[in-house]
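Sequence only, no structure available. Ideas?
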Amino acid sequence: MASITVTMRPANALSHKTMNRNTGSFPGPFSQSLILCFVLLIFSPPLSAQQPWTLQDCIDHALQHNLDIRHQRLQSERTGHDVYQSYAMVLPSFDASSGAGLRFGRSVDEVTNEIFTERLASHRIHADGSMRLFAGFQTINNIRYNLSRQTAVRYDTRSMENDLILTIANAFLQILYFEDMVEVAREQLELSRQQVDKTRILFEGGTVSRGNLLEMEAVAAEDEVRYTAAQNHLNLSYIELTYLLELDPEEPFSIARPNTLDVEESQVLQDPAVIADRAMRIEPTVAAARERITMAERYVDITRGRRWPGLSLNGGYQTAYSEAFTRVVNEGGGNGEAAMMAFGMPVRHPDPGHRDNQPEIIREVIPYREQIRDNYSFTVQFVLRVPIFNNWQVRNSIQQSRIDLEQARLGYERSRNNLGQVIHQAHADALAAYKEYMSYNKSLEAARESYAFSEQGFALGLVSSLELNEAKARLNRAEVSALQSVYEFVFKTKILEFYQGEGFVL
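Reply:
I predicted one. Tokens follow.
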């Protein structure tokens, strides 16, 4: 079993701060030292802006501030309210209303049922309630449907978080890769400049021609272009990660490099089928697709329940007040009307133009509280609703829900196949990257020896400048290829570990 450990270089001088401590006395008066410390605490930048970010810092920050994740969490919160509402549908519902108004012209009073042509003031109070006793098990199936939907959306949120973690990790490794590429390009540029200096000395001594010196200077210029391009790629990688983290690109930002990146053959010796089987049980994308099958099954039950009869219990209460509801004040007037009042029958207002020998009848409007108390009515009823024919709507809904169920099952199989493909592809890529690294590592050692031999031969005049530059180009390609294979291997093996629930840890 081969095991190779790649030691990571320090990031930069800012990430490794040193402090010189004087064990002697304070450099000056004690009060001045206190003032200096106070000023440094006030005007020094925040510590978080100075410290480089680890991969875990980037992941934690992105999961908390990413806009898509926050939007998805709001969707998950919405499904929680839907679950609460589906439970509340078991409870009865109550409504109450109250209306007061004036009527003018000819109208029928709702309390006395008499026709009036005068102004009439009235007030009605109404309350009713309803409770579903049976609805073809639609209520309980709707609760189950919303519970499955809530679970599916939670898995969707976890799936989005996993995708974001992989994206952040890829951007983080991109920065590490381009930092190493900058270092390789800088070393190549420094090597070319040293070679130019050596060639200039040989030219001045008459050992090599001016053409050899110009060729070396041209190679150094090309290496400088590569160095600038590598720095540009590094800056773009930092910008990409900054936007993924929802940070201000103008603020200082740097990452903390891990100490080592291990390239071990044992990481790719596992059977990909075993990895895929383990991932199928914990991958949120597959779990969400499985929950959507349950959702579709519950929705089929809901649509089937519309064929069943429905039974509900309804109740109502109402009372009213009207100015038309009066009673006689003087007992001596109007025998017929007095008899009506004796039996509690309403009496209409007299005609103002009516005059006879009988004494005038005096009436008064029954007080508001008495009318509200006496004019009430209460109803209780059971309502049975039997579906007979509804233009095939229920039948078509059932058929469509069955189609949705089949689509959910196909989606589940598709998610399993996609996950299996990703794992097998990552395993194959990791294995290929490992083999490439082993080959490139041997090629790198050979390229270094070849360049050292060519450099010595060029100094002795045994090797031409063209051969020296070819040896240098081979060395550069070997370094870049070995570097690419390392990061390709690390990323693919970390994907395999991530899908097995081990997280993404460098």
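The first strand starts at residue 3 and ends at 7.
Hope that gets you unstuck.
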